[in-house]
Amino acid sequence: MFVITADQVDSRSGTDLVAAAIDAINDGKVRPVLAAERTVGDELQVLVEGGDDALEIVLRLARTGRWSVGCGAGEVATPLPRDIREATGPAFIAARRAVERAKKRSTRFALETEPATKAAADAESLIDLLLVLRSRRSPEGWELHDLLESGLNQAEAAERLGITPQAVSLRASAGELRADSAARQPLVRILDRLGSVEATPA
To answer: pTM for this structure?
Structure first.
């Protein structure tokens, strides 16, 4: 299981983004075990089962640059309550520790298990690399990324954007879209192992 706790950055001087983020998570393609809810003030929390959903939420929140994102992997106490605010367990403890550490990191992301493990530190480092790569992407690169994620191929994306296939290839290369796509499935497999086994001390 994965608990994701996200705290809005500098919320006191900007618009409250929590409600919109909760709606986007609960109405999106992820499958929460316990729906995203506002926990305290400008913070949200969601419980998911698989590494694919955990990575999807982390990447979506991190893309905006408006969140510190902590991910806790491991066990949760059962039976599960209906409301995530009543849930407990090692993964929740890990997520709390992770979000506090994320606030001090350049990527504003951290991943933890309870107790801490080397596997979690390794996964965090790999996700950091993906987040750094994505942080350098131009708006045009993100535009192409979103079209390809919607199911279009590069030729169809070129037609939609009104540019040549060669220009699309250059944009994809500049945005490191192939490296991004290639990294995600291995990361999901790593996360799945992390979330499905009992944590062992580092």
So the answer is: 0.92
